[in-house]
Design a protein that fits this description.
The chain has 548 residues and is mainly β. 7% of the residues lie in helices and 48% in strands. The protein is elongated, with a radius of gyration of 27 Å.
Length: 548
């Protein structure tokens, strides 16, 4: 009992210390707490308080730093400029809300290039540039007033006319914690060329057209409201966030060929979106390296659950995705793509040689996944994706595919926008792999809810392929559980069908060679393997089981 009272006394002391500064009024108290009310803010939900909020930020900055404290009100504002050593502290119940007036969000000259390559800032509620030791914290809400920009007097203006909630550019030592970011008119939060960034416990609630079972824009047009964009950022920790967004959920981008997203962890997040959930791309000029994504839940997502794509020349390597659970995915469960769209985001910028390699995706579970788009891992001819490991994966697809879809010739689409839906219906309900080298599938389980008569696995122009412990369903109408086309240096072992099938493995293409089968339980397969023609029979080097 004595220990209990000591704990209560300690808690009371912490509370008194934490709240003592808030009881004082204004910046002259020396408390480090700066109250917008002391600078003329009304907080009444009608008056535009931009000048008062900015005055509090400026005073806090001049004093050497502290907190600008929002409490007991709804503060309407245009763009405010966060400065070094200043944290916006938004108390539970308080709201910072974007103004209705476009003139309250001026375009100003910047030291750095924007998305379009122009040296300007453009339309955001909270902006910072070249600042350090800054943040936004508290249990309150920042409201982007997004419905106004979609339905109000401006109709649906272009991307450049719709304010973001947060945009920080070339800043260091940033903390975004606990705050709720609501109803953005554009990207919810964007961090460009920033370093030492922590985003923890943030809730993003910015999703028009919430019903995932209806068309994407069944109520209103989209407004590009990504939940979180990291652009050429370094040393970033994103954790414990809930993101429900109308466009991509967590998205890493690169605008500059000489910059990179690197040293980034994303963990313990729950994501649901009207586009892709956790994505590297689409803007991919520089590099993405040393990134981990772990212990996340993805649900009700219209495009891809996990998307890794380089299409503008970026180098992508040493990416690890682990411990992800997903359900109701309308696009691909896993989408990995190297393409050559080669768009630039800087004037006269060079384009690097795209590289995608050293990817580990493991401990993934999912259900209610689109069978049309399944999972795909694709490079382009002469530029393969390399060194990809898929391990301990258990996916259940919706099913319904037809046997004739197994014969579909998939176009290259080298310059297309990357998306799990870019190829249309795939010839495999599980994994379609093309232009790839050193690919390993270990302990992968694939199943469907409705009968699907396509291959479970389709590998085209793949070199150094190892499949071990595959367990997959198929039907007697399917041309094979596994289909290899021009595949070289392949080992398939310890793998089986979980349902009766006509053929375990089919081999096609004149470049197929060095294929080894071993220790595959075949009690549910009528035939172990078939060949396209006599010329492909030489591809099979060793087999233990029943042939054709």
């Amino acid at each position: 009992m004595l220990r209990f009272y000591k704990w209560l006394n300690l808690l009371a002391l912490i509370f008194l210390v934490a709240t003592a500064g808030y009881s004082q009024s204004g910046s002259e108290s020396g408390s480090g707490i700066f109250d917008p009310y002391d600078y003329g803010a009304k907080g009444d939900g009608h008056t535009v308080d931009t000048k008062s909020i900015q005055a509090a930020i400026d005073a806090c900055h001049r004093a050497g730093g502290g907190k600008v404290y929002f409490h007991n009100g709804q503060f309407i504002s245009g763009t405010v400029y966060l400065k070094s050593n200043v944290i916006l502290d938004i108390e539970a119940g308080a709201v910072l809300r974007a103004s209705d007036n476009l003139d309250d969000f001026p375009i100003k000259v910047s030291n750095y290039q924007s998305y379009t390559g122009k040296f300007v800032t453009n339309k955001m509620l909270v902006y910072a540039e070249d600042a350090k030791n800054i943040g936004i914290c508290g249990k309150g809400t920042i409201d982007g007033n997004g419905d106004h920009w979609a339905k109000g007097p401006y109709g649906l203006p272009s991307f450049s006319l719709r304010p973001r909630i947060i945009h920080f550019r070339v800043c260091k030592n940033i903390l975004i914690r606990d705050v709720r970011l609501y109803n953005s008119a554009s990207w919810v939060q964007a961090y460009q060329s920033c370093e030492n960034l922590v985003i923890d416990g943030v809730t993003v609630d910015s999703r028009p057209n919430k019903n995932i079972e209806k068309p994407r824009f069944f109520e209103v047009e989209g407004r590009n409201n990504d939940g979180l964009d990291l652009i050429d950022c370094r040393r970033v920790r994103v954790s414990n966030c809930y993101i429900n967004s109308g466009d991509d959920g967590i998205c890493l981008k690169s605008f500059a060929p000489e910059e990179a997203c690197r040293d980034i962890t994303i963990s313990n997040c729950v994501v649901s979106t009207n586009a892709s959930a956790i994505k590297i791309g689409t803007e991919t000029s520089g590099a993405f390296e040393d990134i981990t994504i772990q212990n996340c839940v993805i649900y009700d997502t219209r495009l891809d659950a996990i998307s890794l794509a380089t299409v503008d020349g970026a180098r992508m390597e040493r990416i690890t995705v682990s411990g992800v659970s997903m359900r109701n995915i309308k696009g691909a469960a896993v989408f990995i793509r190297l393409g050559i769209r080669n768009r630039t985001y800087r004037e006269k910028a060079s384009i690097n040689q795209a590289i995608l390699r050293d990817i580990i995706i493991e401990n993934i579970q999912g259900t209610r996944i689109s069978s049309e788009y399944g999972c795909s891992i694709t490079g382009i001819q002469n530029v393969p994706v390399e060194n990809i490991t898929l391990k301990n994966i258990n996916l259940r697809f919706e099913g319904g595919g037809k046997a004739e879809d197994s014969q579909r010739l998939i176009p290259e689409r080298r310059r297309n926008y990357p998306s799990g839906k870019m190829f249309g219906i795939l010839p495999a309900y599980g994994f379609f792999i093309r232009h790839a080298k050193n690919i390993r599938l270990e302990n992968v389980q694939l199943d469907f809810a409705r009968q699907d008569s396509r291959n479970a696995l389709y590998c085209d122009e793949v070199q150094e392929l190892e499949i071990s412990g595959l367990k997959a369903s198929a039907t007697m109408q399917a041309p094979g559980l596994i289909r290899l086309v021009n595949a070289r240096e392949v080992v398939v072992s310890g793998s089986r069908s979980t349902s009766p099938i006509a053929v375990f493995l089919s081999i096609h293409g004149g470049k197929s060679k060095d294929i080894i089968l071993g220790s595959n339980p075949l009690n549910k397969a009528t035939r172990e393997y078939v060949f396209e023609d006599k010329a492909t029979e030489a591809a099979l080097k060793e087999a233990k089981g029943r042939g054709n």
